Amino acid sequence: MEINTISGLSPIQTSSAAKTQTPAQVTKEFGSFLSDAMNQVNQAQVESAVLGDKFAAGQIDSIDQVMVAGLKASNMLQMTLQVRNKVIESYQEIMRMSI
Question: Which residues form the signal peptide (predicted)?
Answer without folding.
Answer: none
